[in-house]
Automatic annotation (TrEMBL):
Record keyword Transmembrane helix present: yes
Domain Phytocyanin, chain residue ranges per copy: 26-128
Topology in the lipid bilayer: Lipid-anchor; GPI-anchor
Keywords assigned by UniProt, alphabetized: Cell membrane, Disulfide bond, Glycoprotein, GPI-anchor, Lipoprotein, Membrane, Signal, Transmembrane, Transmembrane helix
InterPro entries listed in its UniProt record: Cupredoxin, ENL_dom, Phytocyanin-like, Phytocyanin_dom
Transmembrane domains' residue ranges: 155-175
Protein's recorded name: Phytocyanin domain-containing protein
Domain of life of the organism encoding this protein: Eukaryota
Family: Belongs to the early nodulin-like (ENODL) family.
């Protein structure tokens, strides 16, 4: 009987570990170690080149780190003009995290005069979901285990950790 309980416990623990690798979103660090800064040379495409090397999905986030600057999400026209009176989004707190809530193109510029013209701007394309949205009655999930350069994986681990701790405590008490 004890060996059957141990086998059952092992099966439950092993099946719980797969939830640790389920990636729900990715956080991208804009500009890497340098952060959101004016390019050293007049390189209008520095941030667009970085963005083109990554794949952005709905619910992913971009993390802007900067000093004495700002981040604006603007329209395509405002992006081309490097100016916005009424941006879609504005932040100047030095550590802005922006979450993509839908697929499509997102236009980012610096709000400091002259920075956008010197290349501190970026277009990010957020991809359409690979599968149709899940209905409220559908409890199945899909996983995306692909690695993305310059990204930090954000795993959905709270529920599996609590479940595993409960199981280990419960079954551990049976064997003591």
């Amino acid at each position: 009987m004890a060996s059957l309980c141990k086998a059952f416990l092992l099966l439950i623990l092993c099946s719980s570990f797969n939830q640790f690798f389920f990636v729900t979103s990715i956080e991208f660090e804009v500009g890497g170690d340098d952060g959101w800064v004016v390019p050293k040379s007049r390189n209008d495409q520095m941030y667009n080149l970085w963005a083109s090397k990554n794949r952005f999905n709905v619910d992913d986030t971009v993390n802007f780190k900067y000093k004495k600057d700002s981040v604006l999400v603007v329209t395509e026209e405002e992006y081309e003009k490097c100016h916005s009176v009424h941006p879609i989004f504005f932040s100047n707190n030095g550590g802005t995290v922006f979450k993509f809530d839908q697929p499509g193109l997102f236009y980012f510029i610096s709000g400091v005069a002259g920075h956008c013209e010197r290349g501190q701007k970026m277009i990010i394309k957020v991809l359409e979901p690979e599968t149709p949205p899940q209905s409220a009655n559908d409890n199945t999930t899909t996983t995306d285990s692909s690695q993305k350069s310059g990204a930090v994986e954000m795993a959905a681990i709270y529920s599996p950790i609590i479940s595993m701790l409960f199981m280990v405590s419960f079954f551990g008490a049976l064997f003591i």
